[in-house]
């Protein structure tokens, strides 16, 4: 499987995720959250930011079900889902992830025909510190 | 210069060239590039030594030095490369048109050579998955352009009621035109609705026929001033308007990170394109719309103003995209059924239509829109005869 290759801007996201926390970069001057993380605030041009902790709640904005040919590790789990989650606490931010029955389940463990746009989801974290998503009301 | 300031009608495409298109060609990319460029110059009746400007894509692997040396170009005073994959296609012509209009050069050649049919696919190479922006997408298995565009397509279908039948209409129009074009890879292979609906998934909601062809091939075109064009061998095809588009807060091919992901780069390019044109979408006789994936066509139809927001799917109904329809598109077969050479075949097809020599000719076509990759920073041309 591919692991995130981080840069200076993105590293805090992954550090917090490894601790089981979902945080987004937020401007320390105008309080506007932004994603992906970057050096400067596009609203007020401030270079100062902080990492705001979120509830981890969101809704499915869209999803796909990839089929092979894929990279071997992913092909082995296909068909699996990839979802985009719109965050409840920061509606302008959408994160990519996977809908799974439980944190450490395989990528393809959730039946694709049960995925719905608009479904409420909750962030969980697998043993590798990767954020995953489960249905808020399974 | 006639037609007012800027690029409007100041330059014309006077030569086009291409190699055969195939899943596998024996020659390498550099050789194919040389063949396409020489064919385009021959079509224009211009000697290689007169070329003083070049433009191509950043992903083009035959660089200016190799090309100029191999085919015997003159002293170059302008050369340009455009980023963002297929989003750069029309901008190669636009850069040359601007350079020639501004007096930086006199004879420009744009080209693209690609061995994607027999060469490696970038997404099969694990190390190519690892640039840092990919940290937000690849680990979760969103690996290929098809996956990235399928995500947008699913949301589009959900929000506006577009259906797989609408996407099929796009695939079918391209295939029908390819069936009329002996140079097209899908020349002798008709498509049916049943074939489409029962084909294998690539990334749901996109199936096999929603995806462009992997192709080996190269194309080129030659641009000169309108004044010079009058003395060339072929009927000039004027660059009437040209634009690039990189919307505020856009992000690569995963622009679900914008405030409004369903208004993509085409909307930005279109605003500039129409502002500098003497005509409107209603005046366009034929369009070559970038079709690496079928959903890009309804999204572009909206962006370039052929219909309202959310109406791109319904626009495809009733044979609208076919010859004789409201807006014939991709009349050579497009990336879906002629060849996928990063959209350059759409430029040359636009020129063929306005010369009146296309294999699926739109009678009396005098205006043609050509677009580049949508979902990525893009570019577009309005051509007229
Ligand atoms: Zn700010």
From TrEMBL, chain A:
Any Pfam family: OB_ChsH2_C
InterPro entries in the cross-refs: ChsH2_C, ChsH2_Znr, NA-bd_OB-fold, Thioester_dehydratase-like
Domain ChsH2 C-terminal OB-fold: 51-126
Domain ChsH2 rubredoxin-like zinc ribbon positions: 14-47
PANTHER family, alphabetized: BLR3430 PROTEIN
Name used for this protein in its record: OB-fold domain-containing protein
From TrEMBL, chain B:
Domain of life: Bacteria
Protein name: Lipid-transfer protein
Gene3D superfamilies referenced in this protein's UniProt entry, alphabetically: 3.40.47.10
GO terms for MF: acyltransferase activity, transferring groups other than amino-acyl groups
Species the sequence originates in: Streptomyces antibioticus
Domain (Thiolase C-terminal): residue spans on this chain: 260-377
